[in-house]
Amino acid sequence: MIAGPFGKRRDRVRIDTSLAIVNIVLLLLFFFLIVGQTPQSAADMRLSETRDLPLNQLPRPILIVRAEDDWQLDGQPVSPELLPAAMAGRDRLLHLMIDREAPAELLVRTLSAPVLAGYDLRLVTLGAQGAP
Known about the structure:
The chain is of the alpha/beta class. It has a domain at 55-124. It is built from 4 helices and 5 strands, in the order ααβββαβαβ. It has helices at residues 18-35, 40-43, 83-86, 104-111; strands at 62-67, 70-73, 76-78, 93-98, 120-124. Strands 3-2-1-4-5 form a 5-stranded mixed beta sheet. It is rod-shaped. The mean pLDDT is 80. Belongs to the ExbD/TolR family. This is Biopolymer transporter ExbD. It is found in: Cell membrane. Keywords: Cell membrane, Membrane, Protein transport, Transmembrane, Transmembrane helix, Transport. One of its GO terms (cellular component) is plasma membrane.
């Protein structure tokens, strides 16, 4: 308690921080509204496509995955379990091709397959009309 010149109690002046807090909240609100908007050009974006590319022009060796158990190595059907035997004597580089419309989990399951663990994988994409 502080006594003033006339003997009255004088309280300290307190700064009201509520206005500063409201300003900060409004600035954050505007920031998240602006950052959260999707740009208009994203709706117009189209992925690149390769069309009418013959299978013999694709890089070798190429593993074509159509389904979880439907694999082809250089155009020949191969079981996922027999891939190491089919790749014997070849380089550890393996090109992987999957349909662009295939579900993402098919690609994730294929890439996480233990049989592909030792290979240097390169993803090859092909458009809808150029698919083998």
